[in-house]
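Schema walk-through. Below, the input block comes first and the output block second. Nothing else is stored per chain. Lengths vary across the set, and this one has 479 residues.
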Amino acid sequence: MADPKGFLKRKRRASQYRPVEERVRDFKEVSLLTPHLQSQEQASRCMDCGTPFCHWACPIGNYIPEWNDLVYNGRWAKAFELLSATNNFPEFTGRLCPALCEYGCVLGINDEPVTIRENELAIIEYAFKKGWVRPRPPAIRTGRKVAVIGSGPSGLACADQLNKAGHKVTVFEKDKKIGGILRYGIPDFKLDKKIIDRRLRILQKEGIEFNPNTEAGSAVSGRDLLKTFDAVCLAIGSRQPRDLNIEGRNLKGIYFAMDYLSRQNRNISGEKTEQELIDAKGKKVVVIGGGDTGSDCVGTANRQQAKEIVQIEVLPKPPLQRPQDSPWPLYPKILKTSSSHEEGCSRMWSVLTKKFIGENGRVKKLLCVKVEFEINNGKWVMKEIAGSDFFIEADLVLLSVGFVHPVHKGIVEEFNLELDNRGNIKTNEKYSASKKKIFACGDARRGQSLIVHAISEGRKTAYFIDEFLTGKPSFLPCW
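--- output ---
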């Protein structure tokens, strides 16, 4: 611990955003990279506590106190080495992770936590700048071949780990470009796609083969995959959207949030598609759903120059401070205001959509009602408040109410895999599916979750695939 009084001398100073009036005019990243000296100052706030709950809270087990100490002392190369030992893609998590570690920071008990996510991003970007992030192909190849279906964070992490073990890895992606939800589901103002391409070039030079525009179960059959490869990992995500099956759902102008975001991302990248851009310009937009994807819709609609944006959520408004049922070091359910919210929108909570109302086949307004939640027999039950009905005008409605499970049609049905009670691919404790040689990881196995959980799942699955292929405990790190 370089400075035992660092947290007393310095207050938390988080990364800054570009000015609102500037950033809403383009889709460039809104966050500004933290200057190196500021990162070193902020790293000095890490107390190197006896029991680092930040480490406990991190799904991939980052060595947070250790690399904070290294950053403070200017030992950036060693910090990068330590960060890379647990995280395959810190340039992704440093931009997208909700920082579970920071809510577990001991300093956060009575002060603001360490800027762990910003420090992580500072390390990896410094490493790229210095040329330390370079291809390191394995010295020995095992002769075993693995197919990874899906190129989101879990699939890429699994592929990266297996390649490090010397196996020949081929990644299949149904979309035209590699990246999965990172490329098509995350707006460019949160993750510039050049960041993805920068990492993919390294993975390719290390020996991973990428087959985009190749849908497993269609372009390549499950039968051929099992015949060609020694193991198959399904990292296909949870892409079956949850619908809102109420009166008026068939009206034009109502879209799933992921369709809205992916079409905009394709438009920015210049990717040719038969699907028309969903444009919010000059429209009254209603986003149903208060999560991160809903927030991304708000930011995108602002950049498309929407006339008005309203985001509604059926759950009550979260508190500003930790509630009693989420004590430290648990991740609390508190109000989150994103950079997109700061750019302008109205937010409403405890609102249930009852009906879509249209004119000439297009949506024009929503019939909504206020709700409250009561405990009945130990369970929360939603109750409509009598007489609270109201309307919200809308020209464009975006459904951001989550996903139910992975898409079953295609490779899942062809393999005839056993599913759990939520419709996810069922696996045992070693991430093996119900059919031999087939494994599953990420959202396809655990359900819709966070990027850091996806990377963790990919790493764990790689460990067990390597164990399966070699017949002995894997040397791959497995948190």
